[in-house]
Amino acid sequence: MDLGQSGRPPGNWNRLYAQELEQPQGNRPERALGEPLRPVPKYFFYAGPITANDKSGLVRPTDDLGRGGDLRIYSEDGLPIDALAVASHFGRLMTINAAIQFVFPAQNPQAATAVEQMVTSILPQAQQGVVRLHLADAAGQPYNGANLTGVTAVNAATGISTLNQNMNGTIAKANAGGQFTTDVRQRLLLGPATSGRLTDTFTPVPLPANVMLPRDFFSIRVLQLNPYLLGTRNPQDNATPIEPAPMVRMYEPLNFLTDGNQVAAANDAIPNAAQPTLCVAQALNGNFQAPTGVVPNVEWPLFTGVPTLNNQPLPPTTAPLPIGLRNGFNPTAQYFDDGNPNTANVDVILTLHGLPPNAWVRVYPRKFISDAREARGDGKGLLVPANGTVILHLVDPLGLTKTPNDPPNQVTIPLPATLRFDLVVIEPPPANTVPVTRIYGNVATTITTTTNVDAPGGANRYNTATWRGITTSGVLGLGQTAPLPNNPTFLQVLQFLTGEGQPRNATRLPTMARRDLLAASLNGGNWTGVISGGRLTPEVISGNARIGCPGGLGGRETQQAASLSGRSS
After folding, report:
1. What would the CATH number be for the domain defined by 321-451?
2. pTM for the whole structure
3. Where in the chain is the domain with CATH 2.60.40?
4. pLDDT tens for residues 537-562?
5. Rounded Cα gap, residues 320 and 93, in angstroms
6. Is-contact 117 174, C-beta < 8 A?
């Protein structure tokens, strides 16, 4: 028989159990949501063969079900509930809420229902007020009460116990000793199987004033985290004695990182003296300045620093940016020769003058794409120093290569060429004011020469880790593996095929890749680490896209996964 209260969302019986059999407590918000501490009966099971009367029909109060023998009662989770406790709960609820009693029109509700009187008559005086418990593991199997205090076993094999001191009692964990080590003890959790949290102890919520129950009952979940999370290893497996089991960690300090700036800062915070260190991402770039510190110092405009003039920091400004500012840009552009004969010189060094110091500029080159359309490239961003001149390294702003590893003899480089770009200027405002921004569109300059002097860069510690890993997969847009050099050695061929080396390339097949990001270090006996997803490249630095991403160094559009950083022993 199904009582018909699923509890999701809380049904009427769930709310009655929560509201009428528990005192309000600040540490139990579940009560206000109609989630009770005690198990609510859902299934009533009578043993024996099923008859036609069991399959359908209306059962009214006082009707004889025509059943005899054992009655078993279960919660919606399939856990057994003490039958006398159910009768005790129902009887008290009908006394508190007389409207749910069944009475004939000429009768008045009973102050003490026949159900309560039945329970009292069955239980000896010494047994009245006893609190029974059913202890079960995560799968609902009986737990025998091992390593718990405050309980007395009634039938350990079925998980039935009584709570010492009844409603004033507390279930706790025994002291560590023998096989019940400190680590095992820490990873043993217990709590109500109905609602709430699993912690180190369980104490029943007091009954409301003037409420007495001749029998009470709670379902308690006991969780041993190691077997619950890791499972039971097969002792016959040859790998079992060789491969150490993972460690279940608890109470580790974690920080939630919400944007790319915070992820970049956390990864760059690997201690200098740490050994070993590891850094794994889709791609690694050690040649840009990463934010340092924590929020708000890792966000624009704080993380970029403030240019100085005569050893004094330049103040923020709210002055408007003039339309005629573009007349003083005097842009110059040159192809950049990196000295590598295996790469085409398609990158461009762009120099701009007359910009307001302490502003952030973002250059978006205009390029032709398929179907003779024009679009904005990824571009580059930079902080304007005190002299108002910026030098930016633009990656293939004209879109001359089809793939990053096109050989030079397959790339046609026009000379002269016209570089057209849009320029966004953002000035950092005083606190609590709107930044001053302006877009200068279709700025143009001619590329006529080549230079081997790169734009000023920065440095971080991503490429200095002891162990590094990347992933390349051209079909997924994650870059391509560099080609083998001419006349390679056997070791170079082997490393090319396996991806081994520093950094290690995890790709095995064209469609294989990993998007996880992990950085960690061991320092002073403690591990510090960051878990995220994405790349550790300049585009990880993000800003406010609505005003041109100030603080962003530029690069392909990317999204940084929400991340965690923390420390463990």
Report:
1. 2.60.40
2. 0.67
3. 321-451
4. 888 887 666 676 777 887 776 655 55
5. 72
6. no
